[in-house]
Amino acid sequence: MKIDARNVNTTLKKPGNFRVILLYGENNGLAHERAVTAVKSFTSTLEDPFQVCILDKENHNRLVEEAFALSLMGGHRAVWVREADDGLSKNLQIILDTTSKMETQNSEQDTLIVLEASILSTKSSLRILAEKHPLVATIACYAEKGRSLEETIRNLIGKKSITPEALHRLTFFLGTDRNVIRNEIEKLLLYCGDKQSIDVNDVQQSMGDDGDFSLEDAIFAALSGNRIAADRALERAFMEGVTVIAVIRALLYHLHRLCQVRLAIEAGTPAKTAISQIRPPIFFKQMDAFTESVQLWNSQRLFKAAEQVQYLEYLSKQTQMPAQLLCQRLISSLSAHSK
Q: I want to staple 264 with a disulfide (CB 3.0 to 4.6 A). Which of 57, 128, 249, 269 is the partner?
């Protein structure tokens, strides 16, 4: 059964009649974090081996055995399966069929199975089984972006305030994986210490050697026509661990902001005014590159560029083509079209 986004937290903390929780998606960090929440909420612990059984990939064959094992200490028990994939489908079907025949099928389960998976396509046998069965809560863990990402950052920084420009820099640079986001925010908070307001300088300083923001540099260079700088910055971004999906999200975000400004200009607003009105504001060090991009692109060409980026996302997810090579080719193409 698919769980609506509004009910995710409730399901993780109080699974009720669900026998299984399947967590899957491209945001591996978020999937893991939610798995931790589900297991800890159900058993009140992560360390007790009598209450929490962790099955890594090499132990997937023990799933049925562990699913029906009794807790030696009594109370709730969780079976946490990592790196779940379609190879578990048959055993999961056995567990669900057996559970459905038991007299306790309408009462709260004593053992909860948490399946932590990565990306599962719509044709995945495990995902199809989970989404159709009433005893399985299926929760997608997609990349966080836009307001969702901003809300996550605000929650992680707690009571501290953050300037719009600093928030923009974080959302642009951090990518979409929850583990990366959490680690970088912890580093930022450690750098800020007792300071109650976080500004863009704090963000830059806490990033250390990564303060050059290679991904952002690549995008600004490409859309202002600097192909050599764009290629170099993108190569460095990949070396730093930036994923193709992160590049795609950042590109779409930047194209959207450029399009906002171009549409305002084409409606009669002076260029300088249109740029000054965009929120969050452009970082002052990138103002020249952004202004040049505004002059080089019109709204129609920006729409076409966005379509190319979306097509790259399709190719990277649905085909076996080398995603990084396709991404580098797209960046070079955008650089050429800028002129």
A: 269
Q: The tokens 């084409």 sit on which residue?
A: 266
* Residue indicated by tokens 């080719």: 329
d(CA 212, CA 87): 43
Closest listed residue to residue 81, CA positions, set 103, 66, 96: 66
pLDDT of residue 209: 47
Q: How far apart are the first and last CA of the chain?
A: 50
Q: Provide the pairing of β-strand 20-24 with 197-198.
A: unpaired
**Residue 72 predicted with pLDDT over 70:** no
Last residue of a domain, one of 192, 211, 230: 211
246 and 206, same domain (yes or no): no
Put simply, whether the predicted model's pTM sits higher than 0.70 gets the answer: no
Which of 140, 160, 178 is the endpoint of a domain? 140
DSSP 3-state of 77: strand
The residue ranges of DSSP E strands in 147-291, in sequence order, are 161-162, 197-198
Which 3 state secondary structure label does DSSP give 134?
A: coil
